[in-house]
Fold:
Amino acid sequence: KQEVTQIPAALSVPEGENLVLNCSFTDSAIYNLQWFRQDPGKGLTSLLLIQSSQREQTSGRLNASLDKSSGRSTLYIAASQPGDSATYLCAVRPRDTGNQFYFGTGTSLTVIP
Amino acid sequence: ETGVTQSPTHLIKTRGQQVTLRCSSQSGHNTVSWYQQALGQGPQFIFQYYREEENGRGNFPPRFSGLQFPNYSSELNVNALELDDSALYLCASSLSRDKETQYFGPGTRLLVL
Structure:
């Protein structure tokens, strides 16, 4: 069974700092990996989707990388802002059960003004 | 284009009762997935519906059941509610079963007393 781990569980940084969130997964046979943002008590907002054949995706200040062979993905946030404060979740879609995502428990990010 | 909507937003039930949660998928999306998110955890896959048929199920007991209608909206039914069923229930829609980005609704917060 696929297991997804996110480190650190919580992170607090001053505004303007660049930061990296980590995601690791146990089975490299995946269709894709998706990063989400979740504000307290709210649903998930999709940030970036990386297909298994891709190495990275970029959207604005966000860059996500995927190293399938080592079972790792990183989400890089440049020039962090207080509005980036949220929980960030990564989810992988395995090849053998392609209809579901396996989620990590998330990294709670606080950007201090 | 409307996003994914869910109703109700909040719900309080007592142990043993039954509950129905509703989801309207994003326009043009024929696939709906349901997830349960306990406090401080990542979402856990319950099941997926594709063109009105169940298309995969996670590790949830049969008292969790669902439906998808011809307009691709969906219901999640939970019978014999237990205290541990208290969670945020998320619905996600996508263009197809495989490889596509999932778009999440805001969720329904269920509290079982």
